[in-house]
Amino acid sequence: MKKQLIIFFLFFTATIFSQRDSLQLGERYLEDQAYFGITYNQLFDQPAQIGVSGFSYGLHLGYIKDVPLVRSGTVALAIGVGYAFDTFSHGLKVSTLNNETVFEASPNSTSNNLKIHALEIPLEFRWRTSTATTYKFWRIYTGVKIGYNLKNTFTYETDTETFNYSNVNNFRKVQYGITFSAGYAAFNFNVYYGLTPLLKNATISTEEISTKVLKMGLIFYLL
């Protein structure tokens, strides 16, 4: 296992730095990048009985491949793959009754969290002021991000009990949203606005649960 990790690290490092070594003035170049982000997460379109979510955070990382649209490299498309871990304090009690998942408000809980592990595919349209020899530049990237849920865990705690429910059937496996990043050099502001509800075929009392995700934070791009 250690040997495989070393080989992967050497390949990853060589891929990143060979890009810099091969660039020549006037030559088409790529902004292939590893990225890492940290976000403050919020849930919106919550049922009236639940209200706003509490403090939540997320971490995401991955690698994205550049596809220049012009020779100067300032306009491009990009596609990548990554991993995301998100937590949400959501105010929703999840339980089972007769093998069916039941959703309720949880006013008496001491802690109520949702943890999500997901595979992500970012698709971006990119504009930047970079050149083949400039590695600090302004950028505006926008696009969509598709997520595939790997695992979801709802945790509900009271003063006397703790309940955990993993991989709830009503959780939507495939989700997507709009992304926007802007900044200078490695330091960039990032927003993700979810377009798909977290849950499907889920209600609380008679109200449909249409909860979606908003993430705001910083994303760092490493050439």
Description:
The chain is mainly β and 223 residues long. It has one domain: Porin. 9% of the residues lie in helices and 58% in strands. The protein contains 1 helix and 13 strands, in the order αβββββββββββββ. It has one helix at 2-22, and strands at residues 33-44, 56-68, 75-89, 92-97, 100-105, 111-128, 138-157, 162-166, 174-184, 187-194, 203-204, 207-208, 212-222. The strands form 3 sheets. An 8-stranded antiparallel barrel has the order 1-2-3-6-7-9-10-13. Strand 2 (56-68) and strand 3 form a beta hairpin. The longest helix has 21 residues, at 2-22. It is elongated, with a radius of gyration of 21 Å. It starts with a helix and ends with a strand.
What's this entry about, in short?
By secondary structure, this protein is mainly beta.
